[in-house]
Fold:
Amino acid sequence: MTRHLLSAADLSRDDALLILDTATELARLADRPIKKLPTLRGRTIVNLFFEDSTRTRSSFEAAAKRLSADVINFSAKGSSVSKGESLKDTALTLEAMGADGVVIRHEASGAPHRLAGWIKGCVVNAGDGTHEHPTQALLDAFTMRRHLGNLDGRRVAIVGDVLHSRVARSNVLLLRTLGADVTVVAPPTLLPVGIDGWSCAYSYDLDAVLPKTDVVMMLRVQRERMNASYFPNAREYSRRYGLDAARMAVLPDHAIVMHPGPMNRGMEIAAEVADSERSVIVEQVTNGVSVRMAVLYLLLGGSESAIGMEPLPAELTGAEGGAT
Amino acid sequence: MSSWLIRGARIAERADPVDLLLDDGVVAAVESGLSHRGASVLEADGLIALPGLVDLHTHLREPGREDAETVETGTLAAALGGFTAVHAMANTDPVADSAGVVEQVWLAGRDAGHCDVHPVGAVSVGLRGEQLAELGAMADSHARVRVFSDDGKCVSDALLMRRALEYVKAFDGVVAQHAQEPRLTEDAQMNESELSGVLGLRGWPAVAEQAIIARDILLTEHVGSRLHICHISTAGSVELVRWAKARGVNVTAEVTPHHLLLTDELAATYDPLYKVNPPLRSRDDVEAVRQGLADGTIDAVATDHAPHALEDKETEWQAAASGMLGLETALSVVALAMVETGLLDWAGVCDRMSTRPARIGRLAGQGQPIAVGAPANLVLIDPAARRVVDPRALASKSRNTPYAGRELPVRVVHTFLRASPTVLDGKPA
Structure:
């Protein structure tokens, strides 16, 4: 089994469930007075962020620190090229520093794959270009399971800029693995060519999808799309694909509303929806730490990656917070 | 000048092996049982003799990127691949858009002596697509340029393309178009397909090639000129050229070895060794270009040999340079894709890799059948040999071959340029 987490497609159903169950155990730690586990003491994890993302970086940092790992934040703002150092040289530097794990965020799709070929440590993809963001999908699945239980047969609508969304790609793959039925909803210009070959349904009509939905996940629409003829203007987009109170009202009673953040309030999601009782958006952020702890724990905790192995590690269930 | 006697080679024109005497730059005799006092003798048992290969599309990188390739290293790679003439593309630094630059490249080729170098002239000044370069001056120069191309960039302005097509009629030139509609391919990274969507790599749609080809066929018909399409890569493009030829439009087309063999699935590795422009396409496209080459719709195989320094390939996919080496593997890849599949015989390979490209480039001394009096430009190949491609063993200065570690058929054994060996027993002569 993989030493890396590069794509949600790397995860078998058992792998994914192991991560989610481990995250559930780890989440209980958050309620204890001392939140630390000694598991990754002496291990070094590098947060290698080529794109600004305070949210994701802090989440990984908190996760690594709660597992007692040494964390190095290696922020390479702007592209590696503009910085004058190639990704390969950066990789060799990290290798020389003895990184056991590298969490990478990069604007180029596939950059984590390249990195994994150059270093011995394990690589976790924290978002690469318009490709994938597997830990986001894991925390989304974790959040869904908390509210809906088993995801088999659950109906999830992912709405918005699917073409450019790494969150959408990872979610489609992972949710399919977990047995959910996914429908992506967008104007035709924001669906990739070949969408009919994906393991999900697609629709151009949000109103037709909403009444048959257990989870609706709204995607951020980037500012730069607005002037590139993907749609006429923000107002028309919002009218056809935004989630407002009227649309929320047609959702089944148990349905939840998600957003990976940061939100454009008033664009893809109305403020009253974002702040409503159905919204689990803040909870997604909280769950991110537990899920990332689980990923780092399972990749780095033993002498070999534990993801893919059968039983839940025994040490976890009885773990004492802060024990030495 | 020494003479060479080649014993027992098979040639397309004869059923049985025959001896060839090369002397004073030409094929002096083609008979069985030849002997010649003072001639060096080569036993060619089991070898096939073909006219020297002619490449319509080579990037020699000189001047400007001598770290990636030079005329010396690139033409040596060409000779080792069985070529006796290459067309050196114009996208150098400075751009080959003046008589001075094309003559510099032409002279460097003559000094290197591994094969003939025919510079391609830029269509527009600086490849900027705004103003015609001095096409006439390049045609009249010592380099005698007949092929003009902004390759690397498309001549996307319809009016400039029309003018270029008209203007080159004065000296029997041809405009070789890199067909890529620029707006449809902004920041494009790979073939637009289901896979590009999955990989999150921006798509390069087939229609961006086909739209330009369709337009240029119509322009060529309208002004009665001659058009050549570079590196055709899609099934739709083959259909368009087939249609144009049926209408009698004077259009020719080339396909690269890699588009005959490799598919876009290789992009899933995110290894930029497989990044090339136009991108690797689908299995259906590969089938279509093979059929097009087999039935003659596509006239020529052209390598688009594109050397790149290691640091320009050891990067993220989107930051990497496009292009792959081709000269030293072209014949082997064509053998694998076309000969072993039964789509072409060796006479067909000779036609698509020597005869027709020489005709398109208007090269009088190249691509002629092996017959008495013809210039002695020829290559002897071992069709039964197989070899594993080792990037470190290539003569090219760069290492960006997509075939590293792959076993390919056919070995180039000897290459002769006007009766002088450039390659003997697979090594530089």
About this structure: Chain B touches chain A at residues 189, 192-203, 205, 269-271, 311, 314-319 (CB under 8 Å). Chain B has a mean pLDDT of 97. The longest strand of chain B covers residues 378-388.
